[in-house]
Amino acid sequence: MKSVKGTHFIQQEHPELLVDESALSGGSCQSAAWPENTTEATEYMKECFEDRVPLTISGARTGIAGGAVPIGGAVLSTDLLKGILPTSRENIIRVQAGETLDSVQEYCKTEKPCLFYPPDPTETTASIGGTVATDASGADSYKFGSTRKWIDRLKILLPSGTALTIKRGNYQFSSGKLRHPSLGLITLPKLEKPQPVKNAAGFHIAPNMDLIDLFIGSEGKLGLILEADLVLARKPYAIASFAVFCNENQFWKLRSDLINASLSLRELEAMADPSLSFLSRNTGKTFPGRGNWVLLTSIDVASEEELDTALEALEMLLEEHGISPDNTWGGFDEIERKRLKEFRHLLPETVNRVISGFSLKNSRIHKISTDTAVPPEQLMEYYETMRSVLENSEVEHVVFGHSGQGHLHANLIPNDNSQLEKAELAVEQIAAEAVKLGGTVSAEHGTGKLKVPLLRLMYSQKELDDMGLLEKSISSC
Ligand SMILES: Cc1cc2nc3c(=O)[nH]c(=O)nc-3n(C[C@H](O)[C@H](O)[C@H](O)COP(=O)(O)OP(=O)(O)OC[C@H]3O[C@@H](n4cnc5c(N)ncnc54)[C@H](O)[C@@H]3O)c2cc1C
Predict the structure, then answer these.
(1) Ligand 1: distance of its center to the CA of 122 in Å?
(2) Phi-psi region for residue 273, left (φ > 0), alpha (ψ -120 to 50) or beta?
(3) What is the pLDDT of residue 364?
(4) What is the CATH number of domain 84-234?
C-alpha cells in the first residue's frame, strides 16, 4: 500500500492532503495512506485505531466546510479506491469510494444510456464517498432530493476497522432505538424539534429512520464509506433549461409562479445582486439585460408535446412579468444545458479563485460562506435579513443557490483580518436567523470543521452531547 510518514515530508511532498476547497489553513498530519482495496484500508484503519491516532478521511477534497483537512493524526485518502460494476438490478450500480461523480456519469452514458445518477452537487470532481459522507445535494435536488435518496446499500469500515454492510430496508429504528448484530443497541438522540427537510448539520436523526441514513451524511465520523450501491433514474425525453436575467421584483414573482405551475421543475436557482457585477468584474464576461438578478430553471419533459407546453407556459410567464425573451439564455439540448451549468458553476469557482489570491498574501484568509436554509415559503423574508447583515458587514459578497428549497448561499470575500472577523460575525447572524425561521445552519455542505461552532445555534447542549455519545458508541464497535 502506498503510504508516507513525517509531518514535514507530507507538508513538502503532499500539500494537497492538507487543504480542501474551504481553503481552511493549518492542516497537518503525521502519516497518510492510499489503500487500493478493502484489505489495505482495513489494515490501515486498524493500525490507527490501535495506536489511538485520530484519522481523517480524505475524498476529492472539494468540500467547503474543512471536513477533509487533517488537524494532526493520520489521513486515509480514497483516491485509489476505484471501480464501477453493474449489479443484478438494471438501475443499481456498485461504486468504490474514490470514483468521481464525473466517472459515474460517464459510465452511465456508455453502459446505461437510458439512465443517469440524479445527485448533482455542481462540483463533479467530488468523490462518491465524499458525496455520501456529506449527503451532498445541489441544484437538481429540488426535484430529486439529496444523495441519501439514491443510496441502496453501503459497505463501511467502522473506525476500528470492522467491516459492515448495510442495505436499505434491512434495519429500521423504532422510536429512536435499534438492536444490530454488530453495533449492539443504538439509541438516537432525542431532538426537541425535528430536523428541517434539507439539513446536513449533525447526524441525520429521525425516530423511525433506516440505519443506512445514520451513515449517510456522517462526514467520516462513523467510519469509512468504502463502496456504495447507487440507484439510477430514467432520463426524461428532454430537459429545457433557462437562465432569466431580470430585476429583483421580477425574480420573486417568477419564482413564485414557477413553484405553483404544473411543470416538472428540476431546479429553481438564483443569483442575487451583486453576483453578476462580481462575475463581470472578475471574468470580463457580459450578460444580457439591465437586471442584476438571474433565475435559473430546468424543466423535465416526457414528450415533444410536453416540451411545447412547457415552452409556451414559460413564455407566457416572462411576458406577464415584463421580461424580454432577449434577456434569457436557454434551450433543450445537451450543449445548452452544459453552457448554463458552466455559467452557474462559474460563480463559486470565481469566488474561490479570488479568495485564493488573497490567501496567498495572508494565510488566515479563507472563504466565509453560509449554507443556511429556511422553509422555502420564508425565503423572501429571510433574504431581507441576509441582505441587511451582508451590507452592514461591508465585506464583498455574492449570494446564489437553491432558491426553490429556501437555500441561498452567501459567499463573503474578506481581504484582511478585520474583514475576516466581520464576515464571521455576519455568518453567525445569518445562521441564527435561519434557525429562528425553522431552518438549518448547514443544508448541504456538512459541518466539517468550519461550521462546528454554528451547531450550538441549532441544537441544545444535551442534543450535542448525545450525538457525541452516539459517535463514541459506534466508534468502539
Ligand atoms: C465549486 C463548488 C461547488 C459546490 N457545490 C456544491 C453543491 O451544490 N452541493 C453540495 O452539496 N456540495 C457542493 N460543493 C461541496 C462539495 O463538492 C461536496 O461537499 C462533496 O460532497 C465533497 O466530496 P469530496 O469527495 O470532495 O469530499 P471531501 O471534501 O474530501 O470530504 C468531505 C467530508 O466527507 C468525508 N469523507 C470523504 N470521503 C469519505 C468516505 N469515503 N467515507 C467517509 N467519509 C468521507 C471527509 O472526511 C470530510 O468530512 C461544492 C464545492 C465546490 C468546490
Answers:
(1) 11
(2) beta
(3) 84
(4) 3.30.465.10
